[in-house]
UniProtKB/TrEMBL annotation:
Residues 5-148 form the CcmH/CycL/Ccl2/NrfF N-terminal domain. InterPro entries: C-type_cytochrome_biogenesis, CcmH/CycL/Ccl2/NrfF_N, CcmH/CycL/NrfF/Ccl2_sf. This is Cytochrome c-type biogenesis protein. The chain crosses the membrane at residues 101-122. Belongs to the CcmH/CycL/Ccl2/NrfF family. Residues 1-17 form the signal peptide. Keywords: Cytochrome c-type biogenesis, Heme, Iron, Membrane, Metal-binding, Signal, Transmembrane, Transmembrane helix. Possible subunit of a heme lyase.
Length: 150
């Protein structure tokens, strides 16, 4: 029973990523910080938010976010500050604007392109199959017999 409890406690590690010394005294400000940090990517763990990550860089980002909120930044200003400092990669859900439209549209565009090329190939192959084979001429038949008789 004690081992099961220990395993369960170890599995809850990511939920306890925000350490008590990071938490703000104002509950409303802390709730804003937690909500914003769930949308920011840990640059070490890559597929975890900084709210879930135990990495030291994630802790630094959580502290930076809280500093910006204490300084009076709005949610957008605080996130924009972090994005300006670390790049748009820090967002777990990147914005579909500007050059990102190319990235968002590249997958469907490539799928359509591959489908079109496949259709062209299949139609050309069907046309090639439809062409009748011409029979061998008498000269070609005699040459073939000579080759096979050798």
């Amino acid at each position: 029973m004690k081992r099961l409890l220990l395993v369960l406690l170890l599995c809850t590690g990511p939920a306890l990523a925000v350490e008590p010394d990071e938490m703000l005294d104002d509950p409303a400000l802390e709730a804003r910080a937690r909500e914003l940090s769930q949308g920011l990517r840990c640059l070490v763990c890559r597929n975890e938010s900084i709210d879930e990550s135990n990495a030291s860089l994630a802790r630094d980002l959580r502290l930076l976010l809280r500093e910006r909120l204490i300084a009076g930044d709005s949610d957008e200003e605080a996130v924009d500050y972090i994005v300006g400092r670390y790049g748009e990669y820090v967002l777990l859900n990147p914005q579909a604007t500007g050059a990102n439209w190319l990235l968002w549209g590249a997958g469907p565009l490539m799928l359509l392109l591959a489908g079109g090329m496949g259709l062209i190939y299949l139609r050309g192959r069907a046309k090639a199959r439809g062409a009748e084979e011409t029979p061998l001429s008498a000269e070609e038949q005699s040459r073939l017999r000579d080759i096979l008789d050798r």
